[in-house]
Design a protein that fits this description.
alpha+beta; five-stranded mixed sheet; five-stranded antiparallel sheet; 779 residues; elongated; Penicillin binding protein transpeptidase fold; 27 helices
């Protein structure tokens, strides 16, 4: 039976009614979903406060005195935010052209892009920069479940709109660059620019900016260290997008697309980079600071030195630090090569040790094994038995070892053999300080922190040899008003047993075996004449000398016995540089300073250092002591600093003679060599910089056989010379070449031109054997 017209009309009306009901119901459902999402029905949503201060982990930034970032402390997020003003325009153009071309025309959601994505799947994503930021900040990767993914998308849209209301377009772009993980510990654009190109963000070129923006697609897939070809292609896509939207010239694009990535990879790990040993000291300093209750936050919690975005302003000068590290590498590489040459099995069957028999070496290695990190890890972390641990040291293991010639070497070696291999290496330490301010300018605690963790600036304490003698001379000047021109006999001298407490009789020897005639104090210090030092010690007594050293900041134990005159105490390089600085600072000791200021992420000052000073010596005594030490670099073992030529033949090598430094300015200093050449020292001063260098092996039984190579003038002085030469060449540093400041009312004669100098004094400083700390002679 045919339908009537009325029935057809009724059916159409029902269709229209249902269409509008479904349409309006769908809109109401969408509105309801958005409303429920906005009030947190589908999970927590960020409120106004969270949008204002999104939770992101910020690394602690370590800043040098010349404004450079030395490194950062972080656990998982190596992030340091930058302002929009610090981003180059080419980086911003690349981002907008590639990720969100209508960024400046929408309010968080790009309706045209969304419609295109719905109607034409595969035509490109519809997520705006604001949406991507919302995703990064508040809910991370999307779920694989479709329903959950849709809910996440709704939340993302809502947050994006809220972000647009909360921040300007520029602030959103800055946040997006700051939050993104570019891989390889490059969290945020600042870390990425530094790690991939060794630059600050505002220094990035167009092609560098294009590469980094290209990584936004997927930094794991487009990792330039693993997928260089893919990253290159992706970078070129970004360059094409920039041309498409009129922010890059076609010819420039074609030219740039033909270029390589030109990476300059600078990893920012805790083992790599500059000032690694100083940074480890600083980490301990910050932990102690954060654990001090007076430094807690307002809410009573501690600052997290890895996540709270602190800025630590240090005294280290990045340029001087680099010069110091370069000098260490240049000299130690040559010195180590000579040490290996002299300690082959043919030349030294007990290599690298000297003066030890087989049983003594075995005992030394066993002690080292039990003191090793491997032993600690297996015993306390893995709970292994002692038998299992000992057996593991003789089991071949894959490892990476250090070498000067080939860098890191991947090899298979028994842990015990690797320990013996590392015993061959000589270790360096250098610290440089402004004597007036106490600011430490350079700190090199070793030659490679990844393989040698021990810090030889502050942790290590070794016999200081003749670098202790200036304390004896300074005491004599201060107490007895002695002049550098006063003469004393070189004849053998004995301090009788019991004269100063319960000490044994002491009669030091002169290293050259010469006891004839007499010598001025200036020449005696320059030539390290032990018998004259013993006479001075007898005049003033060991307790005043020990007290002077303590007043000059030496905290290590100094027994009040005569033999300390020749440097028998173990003292750190840190203490020695601080003590010597008082001589250059008119007798005022200034405690070394490494940190000047700590601020939080909002630049609120949390810590400000307060200088610690102490008047120790009179201005006159300090100046006279300095004039004494100038003799070391004019007529003693430091005279090689004055050389302007390099020997081309004969027995001399760069190691023995040093290099052609050609210094002509006043330099006060002192070399030091300990018993059996186990430690080599050089302490050198100019009016506004005091620098100390130590070189020696981990175990004192590993050392040069002859004093020719083993003295401080061969082991340590060349590092000082190269470092200072670089500092002088950098005019911006303004390292002084002036005379040391003379007191107005100087009553002690320091100019010895009218005094007859000892005829036996060596004036060229080339082949003069350094002093050796002798065994005490008992009677």
């Amino acid at each position: 039976m045919a339908k009537t017209k009325k029935q057809e009309t009724t059916g159409f009306e029902k269709f229209v009614r249902w269409f509008w009901m479904l349409f309006l119901g769908g809109i109401l459902l969408i509105v309801l979903i958005f409303f429920l999402a906005s009030v947190g029905a589908f999970g927590e949503m960020p409120d106004h406060t969270q949008l204002e201060n999104p939770e992101t982990n910020l690394a602690t930034e370590i800043i040098s005195s010349d404004g450079k970032t030395l490194a950062k402390f972080y656990l998982n997020d190596n992030r340091t935010p930058v302002r929009y003003e610090d981003l180059p325009q080419n980086l911003i153009d690349a981002l907008v052209a590639t990720e969100d071309a209508r960024y400046y025309d929408h309010s968080g959601i790009d309706a045209r892009g969304l419609l295109r994505a719905v109607l034409k799947p595969g035509s490109g994503g519809a997520s705006t920069i604001s949406q991507q930021l919302a995703k990064q900040l508040f809910h991370g990767e999307g779920s694989k479940n479709i329903a959950e993914r849709l809910i996440q998308k709704v939340k993302e849209w809502i947050i994006a709109v809220r972000l647009e209301r909360q921040y300007t377009k520029e602030e959103i772009i800055a946040q997006y660059f700051n939050i993104y993980d570019f891989g390889n510990n490059a969290d945020g654009i600042r870390s990425a620019a530094r790690i991939y190109f060794g630059k600050e963000p505002n220094e990035l070129t167009v092609k560098e900016s294009a590469m980094l923006v290209g990584m936004f697609k997927n930094s794991s897939l487009y990792n330039p260290r693993r997928n260089e070809e893919g990253v290159h292609n992706r970078r070129n896509v970004v360059l094409s997008q920039m041309t498409r939207y009129g922010v890059l010239d076609e010819k420039v694009k074609d030219s740039l697309q033909k270029t390589k990535l030109d990476l300059n990879f600078n990893p920012e790990s805790h083992n790599d980079g500059t000032a690694t040993y100083f940074r480890e000291y600083l980490r301990a300093f910050l932990k102690d600071w954060a654990n001090d209750k007076k430094n807690y936050k307002a809410d009573g919690s501690k600052y997290n030195i890895y996540q709270d975005g602190l800025k630590v302003y240090t005294t280290i000068d990045s340029r001087m630090q680099k010069y110091a590290e370069d000098a260490v590498v240049k000299h130690m590489k040559k010195l180590q090569a000579e040490f290996f040459h002299q300690n082959t099995p043919d030349r030294n069957p007990t290599a690298p040790f000297l003066d030890l028999d087989k049983d003594e070496i075995e005992s030394l290695m066993q002690r080292s094994m039990r003191q090793s990190e491997r032993w600690r890890h297996m015993k306390y972390d893995l709970k292994k038995s002692e038998k299992e641990i000992i057996a593991s040291f003789d089991k071949p293991t894959e490892m990476t070892i250090f070498s000067w010639e080939r860098g890191e070497i991947d090899t298979i070696m028994k842990p015990m053999d690797s320990m013996r291999y590392y015993k061959h290496f000589l270790q360096p330490g250098l610290m440089s300080m402004d004597p007036q301010t106490g600011h430490v300018k350079a700190w090199v605690g070793g030659m490679n922190y990844k393989h040698f963790k021990y810090d030889h600036v502050k942790q290590g304490k070794r016999q200081v040899g003749s670098t202790f003698k200036p304390f004896v001379y300074a005491t004599a000047i201060n107490q007895l008003h002695m002049s550098p021109c006063d003469k004393l006999p070189k004849a053998p001298y004995t301090i009788e047993a019991g004269k100063f407490g319960n000490q044994k009789a002491w009669a030091p020897k002169n290293s050259d075996g010469d006891y004839s005639g007499e010598m001025t104090l200036k020449a005696a210090l320059a030539n390290s004449v032990n018998t004259i030092t013993a006479r001075l010690m007898d005049k003033v007594g060991p307790e005043p000398v020990a007290k002077l050293a303590r007043d000059l900041g030496v905290e290590s134990e100094i027994p009040a016995v005569p033999s300390i005159a020749l440097g028998t105490p173990d003292i750190s390089l840190y203490e020695m540089v601080g003590a010597y600085s008082a001589f250059a600072n008119q007798g005022v000791y200034t405690k070394p300073v490494m940190v000047t200021t700590i601020v939080d992420k909002n630049d609120t000052v949390l810590y400000q250092f307060v200088p610690e000073t102490k008047d120790v010596l009179s201005e006159e005594s300090a100046y006279v002591t300095v004039k004494l030490m100038e003799g070391v670099t004019t007529e003693g073992s430091g005279a090689r600093l004055r050389r302007t030529w390099m020997p081309t033949s004969g027995v001399y090598t760069e190691i023995i003679t040093g290099y052609p430094y050609g210094f002509t300015n006043p330099i006060a200093g002192k070399t030091g060599t300990t018993q059996n050449q186990s430690d080599g020292w050089f302490m050198g001063m100019v009016p506004n910089l005091v620098t100390g260098v130590w070189v020696g092996a981990e175990d004192r039984a590993a050392h040069f056989k002859s004093i020719t190579y083993g003295q401080g003038a061969s082991m340590a002085l060349p590092i000082w010379g190269m470092y200072m030469k670089s500092c002088y060449e950098d005019k911006e540093l303004e390292v002084s070449k002036d005379e040391f400041e003379k007191p107005k009312d100087l009553s002690i004669v320091v100019n010895c031109d009218n005094y007859e100098e000892d005829n036996n004094s060596n004036s060229n400083g080339l082949d003069m054997p350094e002093e050796d700390v002798p065994d005490e002679l008992e009677f």
